[in-house]
Write a structure and sequence with these properties.
Helices cover about 20% and strands about 40% of the residues. With about 130 residues, the protein is α+β, with helices and mostly antiparallel strands. The protein has a single domain (about 5-130), classed as 2,3-Dihydroxybiphenyl 1,2-Dioxygenase, domain 1, CATH 3.10.180. It has an eight-stranded mixed beta sheet with strand order 2-3-4-1-5-8-7-6. A hairpin with a 4-residue loop joins strand 2 (about 30-35) and strand 3. The protein is globular and about 45 Å long. The structure holds zinc ion. Zinc ion (ZN) binds near residues 8 and 81.
Length: about 130
């Protein structure tokens, strides 16, 4: 598996508008756009940081994964995403190494990327996302 860089940090927020104000007005990042991922019940907002990004995650429904995360842990870093050269190959390699995967096959994420999550129990407590540009 070849990891190319940290693609983005996923940060759970209660309010996209509040989060956006902080990351643009205070931190001076450029807002790259917003996208709703219906099947994950989440609004995503991206902010460029060099080759990486900050991704804000706002829930669109009280039973969505981000709503549940906020209930349990509050706002903060929810996942770290690594860009890989070939996501199918990376998942196969990890599976062969006995790593528990949330997604055995890549699905469509924001920005039309292929994404997949590894189980935090297999990664020392970090929710790791792999992604591949296509
Ligand atoms: Zn992400």
């Amino acid at each position: 598996m070849k990891i190319l860089n940290i693609d983005h940090l996923g940060i759970a927020v209660k309010s996209m508008d509040e989060g956006k104000k902080f990351w643009t007005d205070i931190m001076g990042l450029e807002f790259d756009g917003q996208e709703t991922i219906e099947e994950q019940k989440v609004n995503t907002g991206f902010f460029a940081v060099g080759e990486s990004e900050v991704e804000l995650l706002e829930s669109t429904a009280p039973d969505g994964p981000i709503a549940r995360y906020l209930e349990k842990r509050g706002e903060g870093i929810q996942h770290i995403a690594f860009r890989v050269e070939n996501i199918e190959e990376a998942l196969k390699e990890l599976k062969d190494k006995g790593i528990r995967l949330i997604d055995e096959k890549p699905r469509k994420g924001a920005g039309n990327k292929k994404i997949a999550f590894l189980h935090p129990k297999a990664t020392g407590g970090v929710l790791v996302e792999l992604c591949e540009e296509q």
